[in-house]
Write a structure and sequence with these properties.
The chain is mainly alpha-helical. It is 58% helix and 7% strand. The protein is built from 6 helices and 2 strands, in the order H-H-H-H-E-E-H-H. A two-stranded antiparallel sheet has the order 1-2.
Length: 190
């Protein structure tokens, strides 16, 4: 069976559908022609179905959207970490169901138990780790790192003073371990 010849009507339709942004295959379906015939007509008319620039632009937009979503998720994870660390020194409600009458009991503790603190710290650590993997910090130099560590140390000192009423004792400089000598402790065994 011989191929149907290309007509002026085919050319006009290809030009009009191409201008509408239809793909080569979509035009071929509309005209009941093969994609290769549509490509031949488009080449003859100086039209192209090359969408590489559009694909690159769309890919860049998608990458930017994903980067923004990662940044938002990193921020959420940072909030989780801060919330968990904040709970470590706050009053904590403990409750249980039990007994033969299936009673509900609750009690408030001034702070969570050490086991619960470990769980809170593990949750905070995992959230911070994931946050840093999603949006790694920029390497702005050691000064910023020292600043963050200084802020952390100041915060820990403030928390210690708030709970104990005074700053921690200075380490004894004659003791290499820095712990000072305990007068009630037995002498070390040689």
């Amino acid at each position: 069976m011989a191929a149907r010849p290309i007509t002026e009507k085919d050319r006009k339709q290809v030009r009009a559908l191409h201008a509408e942004g239809l793909s080569r295959n979509a035009i071929a379906r509309k005209l009941s022609r093969s994609p290769s015939t549509v490509s031949s007509i488009a080449t003859e008319l100086g039209l192209s179905f090359d969408r590489a620039a559009e694909v690159v632009a769309a890919t860049n937009v998608r990458k930017a959207d994903l980067a923004a979503r990662r940044a938002a998720m990193a921020e959420t994870l940072q909030d989780v970490a801060e919330r968990e660390i904040g709970k470590m020194t706050q009053p904590h409600l403990y409750f249980e169901w039990g007994g033969k009458d299936h009673d509900y009991d609750e009690r408030w503790q001034p702070e969570p138990t050490p086991a619960d603190r470990r769980t809170m710290m593990a949750t905070a650590s995992a959230a911070l780790d994931r946050s840093l993997k999603l949006v790694p910090p920029k390497d702005d130099g050691a000064a910023e790192s020292r600043s963050v560590i200084g802020d952390l140390m100041a915060g820990l000192l403030g928390d210690y003073v708030a709970h104990h009423g005074a700053p921690p004792p200075e380490p004894d400089e004659t003791d290499p371990g820095g712990g000072g000598a305990d007068e009630d402790a037995p002498p070390p065994v040689p």
